[in-house]
Amino acid sequence: MPLSEHEQRLLEQIERALVDDDPKFASSVRTGDRRLKARRKLQVGAGLVVVGLAVLVGGAVARSVPLGVFGFLVAFAGVTLGVLNYKAATGVVEAGSPPAGSRGPAGPGRSGRGGRAGRQPLKNRLEERFRRRYDQ
């Protein structure tokens, strides 16, 4: 839904005041979408995994232990980079807060079992199950 002209003017005034008040903060906020940066880091991590595995295999073929260890470390760094940026890159919902439009802890049409682990703590799931049985 687009902003009205009055709202756009107010937003521009707020932006100008922010730039005047704290230009360093304004430039850091204006740099772009965090998800985009996280996706780039995720792609770099995937590239590092591929390169690391290639170096690892090359070290095995050349019978060079230091080269194999280096390849493993590069692949491990890529996996670490990917894991650390996965949530920010994909916009995964934090644990404990159900996604928008879901009904209850398991979501629509799903049982509590077989879903993704870590959605809610076990205590909360058990309490919810007890309440449902008690209410029936």
TrEMBL record:
Regions crossing the membrane: 42-61, 67-86
Domain of life: Bacteria
Keyword Nucleus: no
Biased composition (Gly residues): 104-117
Sorted UniProt keywords: Membrane, Transmembrane, Transmembrane helix
Region annotation (Disordered) ranges: 93-136
Biased amino acid composition, Basic and acidic residues: 124-136
InterPro entries according to UniProt: DUF3040 (IPR021401)
Protein name per its UniProtKB record: DUF3040 domain-containing protein
